[in-house]
Amino acid sequence: MPAGGKLGAGAAASARWCGGRAPVSERAATQFSREGTLAAVMATRERVVHALLMRELQTRFGRSNFGFLWLFFEPMMLGGLVGGLHAIQAGGDHDMAGMPGVSIIFFFMVGYVPYFMFRSMIGRAASAIHSNLSLLYHRDVLLVDIMIARNLIEYFAICGVMVTMVTFGAWATGRLPDGPLKLAVALMLMALLSHGISMIIAAGAAVSDFVERIVHPMTYIMMPLSGAFFMVHTLPPQVQDFMLWIPLVNIHELAREGQFGAVVRAQYDLVYVGQWILGSNFLGLMALRVARPRLHMY
Length: 298
Prior knowledge:
Number of helices: 10
Strand order of the largest sheet: 1-2
Radius of gyration: 25 Å
Distance between the termini: 65 Å
Oligomer: single chain
Shape: globular
Helix content: over 70%
Structural class: mainly alpha
Low-confidence stretches: 1-34
Largest sheet: 2 strands, antiparallel
Strand content: under 5%
Order of helices and strands: HHHEEHHHHHHH
Number of strands: 2
């Protein structure tokens, strides 16, 4: 028998001895190759998102320091104005009715600031793809990278605003957040939910102008229904269950419990919120994949 035949028989015997699978050394090499490929892909995605993030910052705010500072001052100023107006409307009362120790100003700021992140991510999603079409000529740039970079800017800005607001509140009132971890989790959940919905809107706006036209009106309609300005336990019993079907309400309840503790009697379902996050992000990724071939490159 030729030498090649002997080698072939030896390889076959080795395969049979391994139960029909490749030898251990070959399997280890294949696994190492896959892990190396995954690491390379993740490194590429990280570089692309970082580059897009820096480009987005310079495009939106230029090179002046005031532009970057406005990213933090805008939600802080609007949140303070909303809380201040409600405090003026309440007259001489400094605490929320039925919630002793809960400052009116900080109650509305803790509600409005997370909603500002939701509104910003959703509102900017409609123009995200068309304003970055030229970047898609680069092989490594994906639609999801554009969305991640834009939404990370909003998320980090709101985190900075919340830390500043909580610090100022602790100095002004002498009261620290009751559960800072809950407050941080609420911001993360709001960011993930907003990211998923923003991908769906970006994909829809890329193929239909109608989606872009209805986004901003919908954000204003959602504002009074989001839980930013009320607690569920203050509503009539027949309305409470209905409002908890809105995931934003659950997130705002968690945020206020993190800031004020049990005095606000929060009601929320994190499993339900998680289902919304998984569903919206999955649909968003699929929508971007469907929209990509339909884009008209200029």
